[in-house]
C-alpha cells in the first residue's frame, strides 16, 4: 500500500518535466551597480464613503499592514451634496490674509482626519515607515465638484487662504504637517487652471507658507496624462522660483504616456521625484511603465474601497469586505518593497515577462510580471542568500512557494505561471507569522427565518508550516445561541443565528509559533432592508446664480438584497412665489428649472425598492444676479522710484464696486529684475500695501487684483440693508472724484482762455465765467455718474439744475 503514493508522485514528476522543458525560456539579468529611483511612498486615495466601526478600523489595518500603503491622497469636500458642501462654499470674508473659520465647512474634513488619516498614519509609523500625504482639491466644470469660485480663480490671495486653511486644518487637527500640496487635481481638464494660473498660485502661496514656518512643498502638475503634464512643465520650466517650491512631479494615466521619459529626465535632472497618482484601470503593464519609463518614486491606487471595488470590495451591509484583484496584484510589490528601497537594473530578453528589481537594506527583491503563457525564468545576478517566493495568479489571493536558497554566482530558475505576479523577497531566517488571506461566510447576510451559514478561512505561511484553525463566537445578540459545528476546521457550518442583529465570529490561525486572529461580522435581518443613498448632489452648475435658473440633480442608491430601486425627485420647499419644475433627463439625472427667485430650494429624493421607502433632502441655494465687475479707479506707487539703499515703497489704490459687494484685493509680483529676491508685502490683501526687499536695481512690476461677487458668508443677514444704505457709496465716490477733477480742470482752462480773450482785463468776468463752467461740469458729471440709470430723466434733470443753482448761492 505505501508504494502507491510514491509511484504516483514519481509519475507526476516525470510527466511534469517534458511540459516544463517546452515552456518559453526567459533570461533575466539583475545589475545592482546600476541604480535608479528611490521609492518614497505607496499611496491610496482617501475613502469617499463613510464607514462605521469596526469596518473602518479593519480597512485601515488591511491598508497598512497587509497591502503596504504608506500614504494618502486627501481631497477636501467639494460640490453640494445632501450631507456636505464644499469646504469653502462662499468666501469666508473679504480679507485673504485672515482665515475666518466660521466661513468654512470643516465637519466632513475633520471626520476624515480623525477617522482615516490619523489612524493610518499611526499604523504606518508603527510599521517603521514614513507617512506621506498630499492635499489635492478638485474643480471640474460639469462635475460634482463644480466650477471654481471666482474669488479663488481670480485672486491668488484668496486661493492662498483656501490652501492655508486646508493645510493648517490637517496640521492642527492631525498633529503633523502635510508634506505636499497640489494646486489642483487635473489642472486644465474642464477647468480654467492653465499652467500660468498654477504658476502664479504657487508663487503667491509659497512665501506665505515660508513666513509661517510651514514645510509643505508642492506637487505639480498633477495633469490628466503625461502629455498634458509635459506641456505644463515646458510652459513653466523657466520659473526658478516656482520650481524651487516643487518636490514631486506628478501625472495621471488617462491618455498618452509617450512623454513619461521626458518627465522622468526633467525631474531627475533637478533632484525631484515623479509620481503616478491616478488611473481607474491600473494593471501590471502600467505599473512597469511607470517604474521604468516614468521613474516613479510614488505610485498610487485611486479609489480604495466601495461596493464592487477591485481593491477592497465592501459589502452592502456595511460591516465586512473582501480583498479584490488589485489588492493581490499590487500587494506583491507594496508589501515587500518599502519606502527607501532603490530600484536597480533588471533586463529581460522577453517583453512578456517584465522584471523589476530593488535593493532594500542591502538585500535584493525581484518581481516578475508575466503576460499570457507559462514561462521559465533564468535569473542571473542575484545576491546569495535565502529568499521567500510567492505569487498571485490572475489577481487571485497570493500563494507562498516556500523558501529558496541561492548560491553566489549561480542562475536561479523558476517557473512563472500565466498572468502571474511573482515576488522573490529576502528572508532573514526568522520564522514569520502566517497571513489570513480570506475569512468570510458563504452569504453576506441572513434574513429571517434563515439562521445558518458556512464560514471559511484560508491562510498562507512563508515557510509552508502546517496551519491550525480555530473558530469561535466573539459576540451575538442577546438570546442567540450560535453553534459552530467544526470549530477547528478551516471551513465550518454555523447554525442558531435565530435572533436579528450582528454576529461576530473570530478565526485564529496558528503555525505553532505565531497566532493571527481576524473577525468576521454577519448581520441577521428581521425583514427586507430599505435602500440607502450613496450619492445625492446637483451640478451644471453647482452654484446657481441668476439669471441662470436651472441645475441638474443627481442621485443613486444601493439595496442590500439587490432589489431594483426606483428613484424620484420632488420639490420639498422653495422661495415664496417660486414654481420650480423637475424633469427626468436620463438614468439618475433630473433637470431642475424655473429657479428664477433667489433663495433656498429643497428637493426630496425618494428611493423605493418595492418594499421600503427612504428619503434624502438636497438644498440648492440660488443667488441673485451680479452684473457689474469691481473697478480700480487708481493705482500707484509712492514713491514710484526709489534709490538704494531704500528698498521699500507704498502701493496705493482706489477701488469701487457698483453692486455694493464685498471686494477682495491682492497685490502680486508680475516681474522683477534678474536675480532679485522675491519681494515681501505688508497688507498684501489691502488696497494700500507696503512692498519691501526691493534690493536689486531695475524695474519691479506689481499687479493689483480686485474680485467682486463675494456672496455674504453663512450667518450674515444684513446684506439687503447694507446694500440699501451703503450700496451707492462706490458710485458716489467715483462720481465725486471724476466730477471734481473735470470741474477743476474746466474752471482753470476757462479762466486761462478768457484771460487771453480779454487781454487781461475784466477779472470779475473771468472768475465768474470760469466758475459757472467748472461748477456746471462738476454738477452734471456727479449727478450723471452717481444716479445715472437709477432715476427718471426728468428727476435727473431736476437734480442737475437744483444742484447747480445751490452751488451758485
Can you walk through the features of this model?
The chain has 809 residues and is of the alpha/beta class. It has 15 helices and 43 strands. It has a nine-stranded mixed β-sheet with strand order 19-18-21-16-15-14-1-17-20, covered by helices on one side. It has an eight-stranded parallel barrel with strand order 2-3-5-6-7-8-9-10, surrounded by six helices. The protein has a five-stranded antiparallel β-sheet with strand order 4-30-32-35-34, with no helix packed on it. Helix 14 runs antiparallel to helix 15 (793-808). The protein is globular, with a radius of gyration of 35 Å. Mean pLDDT is 90; it is low at 1-20, 712-726 and 789-800.
Provide keyphrases for this structure:
809 residues; 9-stranded mixed β-sheet; 8-stranded parallel barrel; globular; disordered N terminus
Annotation, overall tally of beta strands: 43
- Please, how many helices? 15
Helix/sheet category: alpha/beta
Helix content: 25-40%
The termini sit apart by 133 Å
Task: Give the C-alpha Rg.
Answer: 35 Å
Major beta sheet, strand line-up = 19-18-21-16-15-14-1-17-20
Shape: globular
What number is the mean pLDDT?
90
Question: Could you list the spans in which at least 5 consecutive residues all have pLDDT below 50?
Answer: 1-20, 712-726, 789-800
Provide the β-strand percentage band: 25-35%
How can the largest sheet be summarized?
Answer: 9 strands, mixed
Amino acid at each position: 500500500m505505501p508504494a502507491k503514493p510514491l509511484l504516483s508522485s514519481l509519475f507526476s514528476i516525470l510527466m511534469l518535466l517534458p511540459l516544463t522543458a517546452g515552456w518559453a525560456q526567459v533570461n533575466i539579468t539583475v545589475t545592482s551597480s546600476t541604480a535608479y529611483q528611490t521609492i518614497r511612498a505607496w499611496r491610496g486615495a482617501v475613502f469617499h464613503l463613510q464607514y462605521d466601526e469596526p469596518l473602518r478600523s479593519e480597512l485601515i489595518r488591511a491598508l497598512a499592514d497587509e497591502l503596504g500603503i504608506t500614504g494618502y491622497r486627501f481631497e477636501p469636500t467639494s460640490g453640494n451634496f445632501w450631507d456636505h458642501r464644499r469646504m469653502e462654499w462662499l468666501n469666508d470674508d473679504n480679507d485673504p490674509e485672515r482665515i475666518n473659520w466660521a466661513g468654512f465647512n470643516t465637519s466632513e474634513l475633520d471626520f476624515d482626519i480623525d477617522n482615516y488619516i490619523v489612524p493610518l498614519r499611526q499604523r504606518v509609523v508603527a510599521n517603521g515607515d514614513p507617512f506621506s500625504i498630499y492635499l489635492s482639491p478638485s474643480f471640474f466644470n460639469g462635475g460634482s465638484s463644480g466650477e471654481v469660485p471666482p474669488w479663488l480663480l481670480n485672486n491668488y490671495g484668496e486661493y492662498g487662504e483656501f490652501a492655508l486653511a486646508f493645510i493648517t486644518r490637517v496640521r492642527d487637527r492631525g498633529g503633523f504637517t502635510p508634506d505636499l500640496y497640489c494646486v489642483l487635481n487635473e489642472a486644465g481638464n474642464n477647468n480654467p487652471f492653465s499652467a500660468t494660473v498654477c504658476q502664479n498660485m504657487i508663487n503667491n502661496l509659497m512665501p506665505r507658507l515660508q513666513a509661517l514656518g510651514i514645510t509643505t512643498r508642492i506637487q505639480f502638475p498633477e495633469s490628466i496624462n503625461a502629455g498634458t503634464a509635459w506641456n505644463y512643465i515646458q510652459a513653466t520650466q523657466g520659473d526658478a522660483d516656482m520650481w524651487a517650491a516643487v518636490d514631486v512631479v506628478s501625472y495621471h494615466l488617462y491618455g498618452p504616456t509617450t512623454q513619461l521619459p521626458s518627465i522622468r529626465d526633467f525631474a531627475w535632472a533637478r533632484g525631484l521625484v515623479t509620481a503616478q497618482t491616478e488611473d481607474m484601470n491600473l494593471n501590471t503593464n502600467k505599473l512597469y511603465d511607470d517604474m521604468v519609463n516614468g521613474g516613479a518614486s510614488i505610485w498610487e491606487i485611486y479609489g480604495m474601497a466601495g461596493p464592487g471595488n477591485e481593491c477592497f470590495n465592501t459589502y452592502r451591509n456595511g460591516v465586512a469586505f473582501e480583498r479584490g484583484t488589485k489588492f493581490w496584484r499590487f500587494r506583491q510589490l507594496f508589501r515587500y518593497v518599502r519606502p527607501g528601497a532603490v530600484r536597480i537594473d533588471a533586463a529581460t530578453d522577453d517583453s512578456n515577462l517584465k522584471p523589476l528589481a530593488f535593493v532594500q537594506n542591502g538585500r535584493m527583491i525581484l518581481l516578475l510580471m508575466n503576460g499570457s503563457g507559462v514561462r521559465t525564468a533564468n535569473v542571473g545576478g542575484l545576491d546569495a542568500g535565502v529568499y521567500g517566493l510567492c505569487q498571485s495568479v490572475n489577481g487571485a489571493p497570493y500563494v507562498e512557494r516556500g523558501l529558496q536558497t541561492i548560491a553566489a554566482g549561480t542562475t536561479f530558475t523558476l517557473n512563472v505561471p500565466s498572468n502571474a505576479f511573482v515576488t522573490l523577497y529576502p528572508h532573514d531566517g526568522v520564522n514569520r507569522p502566517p497571513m489570513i488571506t480570506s475569512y468570510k461566510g458563504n452569504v453576506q447576510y441572513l434574513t429571517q427565518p434563515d439562521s445558518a451559514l458556512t464560514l471559511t478561512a484560508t491562510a498562507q505561511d512563508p515557510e509552508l508550516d502546517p496551519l491550525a484553525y480555530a473558530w469561535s463566537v466573539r459576540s451575538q445578540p442577546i438570546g442567540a445561541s450560535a453553534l459552530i459545528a467544526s470549530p477547528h476546521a478551516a471551513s465550518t457550518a454555523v447554525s442558531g443565528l435565530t435572533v436579528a442583529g450582528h454576529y461576530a465570529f473570530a478565526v485564529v490561525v496558528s503555525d505553532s509559533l505565531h497566532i493571527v486572529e481576524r473577525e468576521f461580522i454577519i448581520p441577521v435581518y428581521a425583514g427586507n432592508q430599505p435602500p440607502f443613498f450613496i450619492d445625492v448632489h446637483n451640478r451644471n452648475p453647482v452654484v446657481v446664480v441668476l439669471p441662470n435658473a436651472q441645475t441638474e440633480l443627481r442621485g443613486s442608491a444601493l439595496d442590500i438584497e439587490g432589489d431594483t430601486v426606483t428613484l424620484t425627485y420632488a420639490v420639498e420647499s422653495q422661495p415664496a412665489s417660486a414654481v420650480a419644475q423637475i424633469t427626468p433627463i436620463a438614468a439618475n439625472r433630473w433637470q431642475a428649472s424655473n429657479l428664477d427667485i433667489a433663495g433656498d430650494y429643497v428637493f426630496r429624493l425618494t428611493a423605493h425598492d418595492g418594499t421600503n421607502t427612504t428619503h434624502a433632502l438636497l438644498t440648492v441655494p440660488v443667488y441673485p444676479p451680479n452684473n457689474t465687475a469691481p473697478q480700480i479707479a487708481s493705482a500707484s506707487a509712492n514713491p514710484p522710484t526709489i534709490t538704494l539703499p531704500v528698498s521699500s515703497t507704498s502701493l496705493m489704490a482706489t477701488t469701487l464696486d457698483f453692486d455694493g459687494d464685498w471686494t477682495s484685493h491682492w497685490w502680486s509680483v508680475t516681474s522683477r529684475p534678474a536675480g532679485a529676491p522675491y519681494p515681501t508685502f505688508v497688507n498684501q490683501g489691502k488696497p494700500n500695501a507696503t512692498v519691501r526687499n526691493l534690493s536689486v536695481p531695475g524695474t519691479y512690476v506689481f499687479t493689483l487684483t480686485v474680485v467682486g461677487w463675494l456672496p455674504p458668508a453663512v450667518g450674515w443677514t444684513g446684506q439687503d440693508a447694507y446694500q440699501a444704505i451703503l450700496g451707492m457709496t462706490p458710485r458716489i465716490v467715483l462720481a465725486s472724484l471724476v466730477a471734481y477733477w473735470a470741474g477743476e480742470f474746466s474752471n482753470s482752462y476757462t479762466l486761462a482762455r478768457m484771460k487771453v480773450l480779454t487781454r487781461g482785463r475784466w477779472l470779475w468776468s473771468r472768475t465768474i465765467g470760469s466758475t459757472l463752467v467748472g461748477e456746471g461740469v462738476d454738477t452734471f458729471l456727479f449727478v450723471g455718474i452717481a444716479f445715472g440709470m437709477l432715476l427718471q430723466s426728468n428727476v435727473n434733470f431736476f437734480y442737475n439744475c437744483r444742484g447747480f443753482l445751490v452751488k451758485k448761492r
